[in-house]
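User:
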Amino acid sequence: SRPEGQRVLRLLRAQEEAWVIGSLAHRQPGSECVVIRNLERSLKMSPGRSPDTSALQNGSLPGEQSSRKRTRVAVLISGTGTNLQALMEQAKKPSSSAEIVVVISNRPGVTGLKRASMAGIQTRVVDHKQYGSRAEFDGTIDRVLEEFGVELVCLAGFMRILTGPFVRKWSGKMLNIHPSLLPSFKGVNAQKQALQAGVRVTGCTVHFVAEEVDAGAIVVQEAVPILMTDSEDSLSERIREAEHRAFPAALELVSSGGVKLRDDGRIVWNQSVQG
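Assistant: Predicted structure:
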């Protein structure tokens, strides 16, 4: 407590120099374990030789929590979580506007959950097999999102179709990635559809989630050429590499406020954020 701290400080100062350098506080779920404030300013004002702070980004040292508020993000997965990994790496950058606060899987024990745990991110399993209806399942997901104060949801290989009420509640706050250049090749097996159609270019699309599957407003697309030698596996692998660039880019655009969804389902670009 504060009075006890002051008493200890007085006792110590009778013998030597002493300062209060921090405090313990209850940590909210998903928040930083350690928060250091005013570190750069203190270092620059110290009487000894100040360290080189020219490499500081956002006025923060590595590990220092930025005073800028980041958008609280949840990632929903069903499997390996390779796109999750790309999103986590983006959110770790000091310049990012996103903070991944929880990873939710509808399947227990998947690799993506291990990836999140190793990165120190909270995880939850909401197993769809344990619920009698889609509405019950979605309601549980919604409660977890509320618990973590989530502001933006990313579907990264999430293999469940969400109900209309859930999608409407999170309209403009939920992104999905699809392995084709929408509106071409919606639904499952998009890579196979592209090969069978004989097109020479396909790719990936990050879009806002709408009630119609793979139909929401498009945020980012990246083209991938189809080679004469491509199999479904080789094409899928190259599309996956493009996804790992496109999804982090879209996460940044939306979490920074650079892109927003209008009520009529169209996108607004904020040029001042875009620079």
